[in-house]
Amino acid sequence: MADFEPNITAFVCTWCTYAGADLAGTSRMKYPANVRLIRVPCTGRIDALFILKAFENGADAVLVSGCHPGDCHYTSGNLHARRRWTVFSELLDFVGIDSGRVTFSWISAAEGRKFADLITEVTAKVRALGPFDSYRKMSAAAGEQSNAR
Ligand code: FES
Fold first, then answer.
1. Among 16, 45, 65, which residue has the most ligand 1 atoms within 8 Å of its CB, making it the best to mutate?
2. pLDDT at residue 137 is higher than 70
């Protein structure tokens, strides 16, 4: 566990959080290299299945981040995402996912420091939680059962 380095998958809006991550990089702000960014046009595009697939494929935590309320380039995509997240978070326990492994945030293109701090914070939290092997094992077992039918 001491050597555990979490894999964090981040679904980020191209207009705000991705630009904020870019700002953090070009400003040479330091943050853990545990995050893989997946750029989407808007957080409204993020389906709950994206998050489940990320966990199936090795993520120990998932971050969803986009424009602040009122700043979405598609008017209300981030508000739809927030509503979807409220429902989805209630389903996480049902499928065996600790909701502490999914983080939702708003980060603008000007908030490079906030991006770096969030990645640092999420990485520390997931290091403490440990690897998320239990969900991968459970979904692999479910896949084997459905293949056997
Ligand atoms: Fe950024 Fe919609 S365009 S969340």
1. 16
2. yes
